[in-house]
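Appendix C reproduces, verbatim, an entry submitted by the partner laboratory led by Prof. M.T., so that reviewers can inspect both the input and the predicted structure.
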Amino acid sequence: MSDPWDLPQPDLFSYSSVNQIAYDWAGGNWYFLDDSKEVIFLCQERKNHAKLMCLSIVSVRLSKPRGIALDPSEGYMFFTEWGTAPPKLERALLDGTERTDIVSKNIVYPYGVAVDHPNRHVYWVDTYLDYIERCDYDGNNRKTVVRGAPVENLYGLAVFQNKLFVTSWRENAILAMNKFAPNNHSTVLGSLARPFAMHVFHRQRQPLHSKLYTHDPDSDAADKHPCQSLDPCHHFCVPSKLSPYYRCVCQTGYVVSDQRIGRCSLVQPKDFLIFGQNKPGMIRGVGMQFAAPSKSDEEDEADPHSSEVMIPIPGLSRPTTLDFHFQQSYVYFSDSQTYKIQRAKILGDSVVTEDFITEGLNKVEGLAVDWVGENLYWSDEGLQAIYVTPLEKHTAKKTLISGNLSHPRSIALDPIKGFLFWSNWNSVEDHLDISGSISWSWLDGSERKVLVNTNLHWPNGLTIDYDNSIIYWCDTFANKIESLNYMNNEKMRNV
C-alpha cells in the first residue's frame, strides 16, 4: 500500500467526470460511474495496451447514478440513482444485463451503497430522509437500520462484520456504529472537509465464490478466480454465479467467435445505423435488425452490447451532425464545442480520429458527403452560409450559398441527379413567427429555389430516398416527420 501507482487513462472517457469507482477483485475489472454523462463503464487493463480498454455497460434509463457496489461471487452490481427519473436502487449482472429495480418506493436521495457479503444484504443511505436502510439481494426483507440525527447528511457507506461506517457532511467526520445498536455511534476521524467515499481494507471484504477455494496451498489456482488463474477471455472476463463462474464479453464492435477460448472477432456488418450522442459524447453504430419493443424488454433490458457493430468514436462533447463515405470507411462529423470538422476511419480494430477542417468555422449544423464528386458540403449557422471542399484537397473551400439565410441547418445531397438540399430556420421578427423553409439547387449552388416554405417551423434531419426521389425531414417544433417527392411537379407533402 505504500507504493502509489497510476491507473492508465481509459480509451472511451476521461476521469474528470467520474464520481465513483468499484473494483472487481475476482475478474480484475474496474467499474466507473459517471453521473454527469449518466453511464457506467466496465474497464480492464490489458497487455500491450497503453490505455484501459473500456465498455459502456449501462447508459440508458440511468438518471444521475450516485453510488455503486459489487458482489463478484454472486455476479451482481448494485447502484443508486436519483435525477429527473424516480429514485431507486438497481441490481444488474456485472456485464450490465438483467437490470432489476429492487427498491423504488419510499426512497428519495439514495447516495452511498455497500454490500454485506456473508448475509447477502445491500445497505444504502438516503440523504433526504436521513435513513440508513437495508434489504436482501432481491429487494425483500427491507429494514430501516437507523434514522434521524445520527445519520443526517451522509454520503458514503461501508460495512464490515457488525459495524457500519459512514461519511457525514454534517459532522465532517467518519462515524462508526453497530448494525444492531446503531444509535450508539462514535467518531473514527473528525475535522474532515466534506468526506466522500471510503472502504474497509480487509480480506473478508473481497470474498470469492465458496466453490473456488482450494485446500491445496501449492496450487497455482489457490484462492483465485478463473478469470485470473485461467485468463480465459480475449477481452473482458466477467464473474458469474454459475459454473464456470465467468462470462466472456467483447469490446464494442466485436463478438465472441469461439466460446471455448473466449475469442473475440471484429463484426463485419453489411449495413448499420450510425448516430451521435452527448452522454457520453461519442458516435456509435448499431445493427439494423429491429424488433418491436415489449413490456418484458423494458423491464429486463437485453444485452446492451449485442447490437453494436463498430468500435465507437469516443472523446466527443456534442456531435451534432455526421455523414459517411462508404468506400473509404470514413465518418465525417462536427462537434459543436470544438469548432472543427473531423473524420475517423471505422470498421477496423481501432479508431483514429483526425482533424479535417480546423479554420473558418463557427457553428456547423449540417454535413453531407458527395461520394460521386468526392466533395464535402456543410452548413454553418454562425456564418450563415453553405460551403464545399474537395475530400482530397480540403485546404480550399468555396462558398456556395449565402444571403437570405438566417439559420441554415441540415443539408442533404442527391449526387446522382446533382441536387443540393438545405433547411433554414427563420427568426421571430416583430413578434411574427416567420416560417422555416427547405430549398434546393444544383450541386454548384446555381439555380437556387425554395422547395417548401408553408406550415414549416424548424425543419431538420434532411435525408434522401435516392431510388424514389423523396426527401424526408422532421419538424422539431411541430413534432412530425414529413416527406416530398422532389421530382413530382405536384410537390405533394406526406406526414
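The first helix runs from residue 226 to 229. Additional entries are available on request from the coordinating office.
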